Amino acid sequence: MRLGAYEIAAPIGEGGMGQVYRATDTKLKRQVAIKVLPAELAHDADRLARFQREAEVLAALNHPHIAGIYGVEETDGVQALVMEFVQGEDLAQQIARGPLPAEDAIRIAREITEALEAAHEQGIVHRDLKPANIKIREDGTVKV
Fold first, then answer.
1. What torsion, rounded to 10 degrees, do the Cα atoms 34, 37, 42, 45 define?
2. Cβ distance 111 to 141 under 8 Å?
3. According to the model, what pLDDT value does residue 69 have?
4. Does residue 90 carry a catalytic annotation?
5. Vertex 81: Cα angle to 77 and 85 (nearest 5)
């Protein structure tokens, strides 16, 4: 499947505001995450406004522990956010394997706190913070 310049590869998650896919940016030759607003919500003015606000909120944040946004895509009535693809497991997957070593848990908690502090300083509140929404890159870096 294709969405503008993006070649959709595989689903990677789903939330209240849409499905998320791994995709390739064919122009810049990089992996991205594409969050697509479901078709049944694309005609709802309130949902469209929330989707746009989410894009604007992400664009206002620039922090090493917050996944970045690259842009907004609209193709054939499909609305999507193009975001940084974070390779690695989510925190829920790591927790499911058993307790984290104390030093890892402290580092992860500190990086999550730094991300939330940066968002709060901009007046932004994360309304769906949970282990499944926190990615841990292969180098150990946290991305909210």
1. -110
2. yes
3. 95
4. no
5. 140
Tokens (6 digits) for 46: 């309130």
pLDDT band at 127 (very low <50, low <70, confident <90, very high): confident
Query: Where is pLDDT greater, at 40 or 90?
Result: 90
- Structural tokens at position 32: 């991205």
Residues facing residue 30 across a β-bridge: 25
The alpha carbon torsion through 108, 133, 90, 115 (nearest 10 deg) reads -30
pLDDT of 97-115, one tens digit each? 999 999 999 999 999 999 9
Read off the tokens for 124: 């932004």
| pLDDT above 90 (res 42) | no
Q: Which residues of 76-88 are buried (b: 16+ CB within 10 A; e: fewer)?
A: eebbbbbbbbbee
d(CA 33, CA 78): 15
Single out the residue of 106, 132, 100 nearest to residue 14, CA to CA: 132
- Examine the pLDDT at 128 and tell me if it is beyond 90: no
Catalytic, out of 46, 76, 128, 139: 128
Q: Are strands 88-90 and 135-137 parallel, antiparallel or unpaired?
A: antiparallel
